[in-house]
Design a protein that fits this description.
Number of strands: 18
Number of helices: 14
Largest sheet: 9 strands, mixed
Radius of gyration: 27 Å
Bound molecules: xanthosine-5'-monophosphate
Distance between the termini: 41 Å
Strand content: 15-25%
Strand order of the largest sheet: 2-1-3-4-9-8-7-5-6
Shape: globular
CATH topology of the largest domain: Rossmann fold
Number of domains: 3
């Protein structure tokens, strides 16, 4: 694998994805990882990421410079370059002016890093400090008009660039990374979906054994579905999937998900309609965080009951009655969550308490299977496609665990859920008809408790307001509102105000994140 040491750059995960796009496995470790831990991944090369610090900062991350002497090929990027220069006896200094944005880089192409690339290229820069004197043994292999842009010590196999090859603004970035991977590290491109699927299935079989049982909470979304299908391929119907109707799903979703999971994917599925329980608990509650907590807790309680029953039954069906001792819980944890929890950055402030399906029932002592914990979201889709899962699941826009409850401002009542289900259905249908569904991160309707006066025929009406929200995003952390075509907005607006009795006004949300969040609650 390629080990990427993270010095805190916002682009570190992007480096990992770019390497994997070349079918080479990569892992991200904090830059403070020990040499033993780095070695345990059997690296064929090491990448030092960028980072927000200066090498002279008192709080510059304390990475072990021994990584530069392990004999693995090294590629430093941005701060990574400055770290190499500083550690190996060169000099880093603050530039008189910060280089930020596109820059023209002139490179010498007589070396394996820049081989085959044009001598002049556009690259993305973002740095204040720069290399002033190179360490002994290094030579400059690229420059901009202001600064050193690339250095190399071919004898020690250490390479570094000041720009960011991982961002798409650097036109030759992929070619440069390929040179590092295949030219310098001699990587084999064997990190493929087939390889991942085979090795994951084998590992799950080995873990769960011949008689173990597993349970899984399905949401109908991409992650839990792909995780379930992988485990099902490994242990068949010894996996039971639980799908809970929490009363705030979209129109017909409870039935649609059952059809897909049972009929199309052949999963062993238990569908629990607990909508009454959830809606009863939500009655009279208006505070957003309280709503989220109620749904989260109720979900765990329903799932807990079901899981206990399933495991009891599976134990009874095992001859020695030992089935309950071999219980596993499948979770769709992804690699960004794994990196986040081990990162050098401190815990960030809780803006909203997130609820994901499969919150671990604590008293059950289930052991975890997380088949996707090495994957990024786009890789999960690739795996799903290789598993021949339907596109309607793989391309599904994210849907929050607390469902429509965080899109109904104020109290959640059955009447309001039904109104929002109708409006939401129109939004989704029209966005799909316009061919926009897959390009948009999320598009949905929000029901506001604000009422206004309208007119229908000769009658005065007094109904709710519905807000339409559509955003582009890479990962849900930041988002831009989408300028939907007026024609699409017009159709959505006239359909909702004519067809959904109780909603008399439709407005469009033009807030980006930050400062807004994607969901309204
Ligand atoms: P916000 O509203 O925080 O949402 O900007 C960011 C992304 O997260 C989704 N979201 C959730 N997903 N459980 C989830 O699984 C939750 O409790 C939850 N709350 C928000 C939201 O839809 C958006 O994609």
């Amino acid at each position: 694998s390629i080990v990427i040491l993270d010095f805190g750059s916002q682009y570190t995960q992007l480096i990992a994805r770019r390497v994997r796009e070349q079918n080479v496995f990569s892992v991200v470790l904090p830059c403070t990882a020990s040499i033993e831990e780095i070695r345990s991944y059997h690296p064929i090369g090491i990448v030092l990421s960028g980072g927000p610090c200066s090498v002279y900062d008192a709080d510059a991350p304390p990475a072990d410079p021994a990584v530069l002497a392990l004999g693995y090929p090294v590629l430093g990027i941005c701060y990574g370059l400055q770290y190499i220069v500083h550690q190996l006896g060169g000099k880093v200094s603050s530039a008189s002016k910060r280089e930020y944005g596109h820059a023209e880089v002139n490179a010498t192409t007589d070396n394996p890093l820049f081989a085959g690339l044009p001598a002049t290229m556009t690259a993305w820069m973002s740095h204040g400090d720069h290399a002033e004197e190179l360490p002994p043994g290094f030579r400059q292999i690229a420059k901009t008009s202001n600064a050193v842009a690339g250095i190399a010590d071919p004898d020690r196999n250490i390479w570094a660039v000041q720009f960011h090859p991982e961002v798409h603004h650097t036109k030759q970035g992929t070619a440069l990374l390929r040179n590092f991977l295949f030219g310098i590290c001699k990587a084999t491109p064997d990190w493929t979906p087939e390889h991942f699927i085979q090795s994951t299935i084998a590992a799950i079989r080995e873990k769960v054994g011949e008689s173990g049982h597993a349970i899984c909470a399905l949401s109908g979304g991409v992650d839990s579905s792909v995780a379930a299908v992988l485990v099902h391929r490994a242990i068949g119907d010894r996996l039971t999937c639980v799908f809970v109707n929490n009363g705030v799903l979209r129109r017909n979703e409870f039935f649609k998900v059952q059809d897909t999971m049972r009929d199309k994917l052949g999963l062993n599925l238990v569908a629990v309609d607990a909508s009454g329980r959830f809606l009863a608990k939500l009655a009279g509650v208006t505070d957003p965080e309280t709503k989220r907590k109620i749904i989260g807790n109720e979900f765990i309680s329903v799932f807990d009951d079901e899981a206990a029953r399933i495991l009891r039954e599976s134990a009874e069906s095992t001859e020695d009655g030992e089935g309950a001792n071999v219980a596993w819980l499948v979770q769709g944890t992804l690699y960004p969550d794994v990196i986040e929890s081990s990162s050098v950055k401190g815990p960030s402030q809780t803006i909203k308490s997130h609820h994901n399906v499969g919150g671990l029932p604590e008293n059950m002592k289930l052991k975890l299977i997380e088949p996707l914990r090495d994957l990024f979201k786009d890789e999960v889709r690739r795996i799903g496609r290789d598993l021949q899962m339907p596109e309607e699941i793989l391309q599904r826009q994210p849907f929050p665990g607390p469902g429509l409850a965080v899109r109904i401002l104020g109290e959640v009542t059955p009447e309001r859920v039904s109104l929002l289900q109708d409006a939401d259905d129109i939004v989704v249908t029209e966005i799909k008809t316009a061919g926009l569904y897959q390009q948009i991160w999320q598009s949905f309707a929000v029901l506001l408790p604000v009422r206004s006066v309208g007119v229908a025929g000769d009658q005065r009406t007094y109904g709710y307001t519905c807000a339409i929200r559509a955003v582009h995003s890479e990962d849900g952390m930041t988002a831009d509102w989408v300028p939907l075509p007026y024609e699409v907005l017009k159709t959505i607006s006239s359909r909702i105000s004519n067809e959904v009795h109780g909603i008399t006004r439709v407005v469009y949300d033009i807030t980006s994140k930050p400062p807004g969040t994607i969901e309204w609650e």
